[in-house]
Backbone:
């Protein structure tokens, strides 16, 4: 298990697990990008970026896009600052779960990869996404299916896709699409 004993957050001491390229096989960034109607975004926010593995992948897909790789862990942000220098479009940022220190209407796209189940207050985080997204911006949430499986967090920590959809509706998102053809994860996209 890769959670801390105190709560359901990923243990940053296990960061090498996050930096494993096999994760890109299970949640292919190209598949996520193909579902996003914005083809030339100028700003993407990666919430819960960890080691920036997906930020790096998105920087290759969306050349010219500024990527803010946000994490609440100083360990993760320091690791990204030390290891992502060859990706000048990626900007590691230390955040709080309910607040990202960026201006209103900053991003075209916000992605959360395997983060949703860790959120203490998902509604507050989605409200922050509303603030950060430009008009017609897209939030992309991929998280573990609520099934018993060897990979990922305990079943009890997993959040069913229908609950995520309800949270998106409560916080004013529209055009909610659920894609359920990945092996371990579901994918949900919604518009501001």
Residues:
């Amino acid at each position: 298990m890769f959670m801390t004993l105190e709560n359901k957050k990923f243990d940053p001491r296990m960061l090498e697990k996050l930096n494993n390229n096999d994760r890109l096989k299970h949640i292919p960034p190209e598949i996520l990008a193909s579902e996003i109607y914005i083809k030339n975004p100028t700003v993407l926010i990666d919430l819960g970026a960890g080691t920036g593995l997906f930020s790096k992948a998105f920087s290759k897909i969306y050349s010219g896009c500024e990527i803010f790789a946000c994490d609440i862990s100083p360990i993760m942000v320091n690791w990204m600052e030390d290891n992502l220098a060859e990706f000048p479009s990626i900007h590691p940022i230390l955040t709080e779960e309910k607040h990202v220190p960026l201006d209103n209407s900053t991003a075209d796209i916000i992605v959360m990869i395997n983060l949703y189940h860790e959120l203490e207050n998902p509604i507050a985080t989605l409200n922050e996404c509303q603030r950060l997204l430009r008009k017609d911006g897209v939030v992309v949430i991929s998280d573990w299916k609520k099934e018993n499986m060897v990979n990922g967090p305990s079943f009890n920590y997993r959040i069913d896709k229908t609950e995520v959809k309800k949270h998106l509706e409560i916080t004013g998102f529209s055009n909610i699409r659920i894609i359920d053809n990945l092996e371990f994860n579901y994918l949900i996209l919604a518009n501001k």
About this structure: The beta strands are 43-47, 66-71, 90-94, 107-113, 133-144, 174-179, 185-191.
